[in-house]
Amino acid sequence: MSDAFKTIATFQYSSEAQIIKGRLEADDIEVFLQDRFTIDTDPLVSNAIGGVKLRVKAKDAMKAQYILSSIKQYALDDDGNALHCPNCHSEKIEIYSTIDSLKSLLAFVIGLVSGTLPFHTLYKYECDACGKEFSVEDVKPKSA
């Protein structure tokens, strides 16, 4: 049963998962990326299928999670200061882009059709500690 794989992280894009995979393999941890080719073929299905799953052998899961937690980068402001959740004041905030308005959808479609990058991207933040989602306007660095 020691050959069973366990998912320790998920990523929206395979490029993010590849970076972590390289780091874990440097510590002799065998890594399998599930759904990588599907998302590389069509990135729009990433959210629908749950992203690229980073899987390691069950016996290496604790070591891999420790390594992952030691390198995980949370959201910072323009000056390099940690951002704080407006709900619980945790510094464990992740940023992600989303398409949840007509403007961002149109920008995405135009970028997709014309082969250029989207000219409008909406970013949201999510607190790892309490799970609260909030917008850029809600995030301000906590003064020391």
What layout of secondary structure does this protein have?
Elements: E1 5-11, H1 14-26, E2 31-34, H2 36-41, H3 46-49, E3 52-57, H4 61-71, E4 93-98, H5 102-114, E5 122-127, E6 133-135
Antiparallel strand pairs: 1-3, 2-3, 4-5, 5-6
Protein name: DUF2007 domain-containing protein
Order of helices and strands: EHEHHEHEHEE
**Unreliably modeled segments:** none
How would you characterize the largest beta sheet? 3 strands, antiparallel
Instruction: Find the count of extended strands (DSSP E, 2+ residues).
Output: 6
Measured distance between first and last alpha carbons:
49 Å
**What structural category arises from helix and sheet content?**
alpha+beta
Total of helices:
5
Strand content: 15-25%
Q: How many domain regions?
A: 2
Helix content: 25-40%
Silhouette: globular
Integer average pLDDT? 78
* Biggest sheet: strand arrangement: 1-3-2
Radius of gyration: 17 Å
Protein name: DUF2007 domain-containing protein
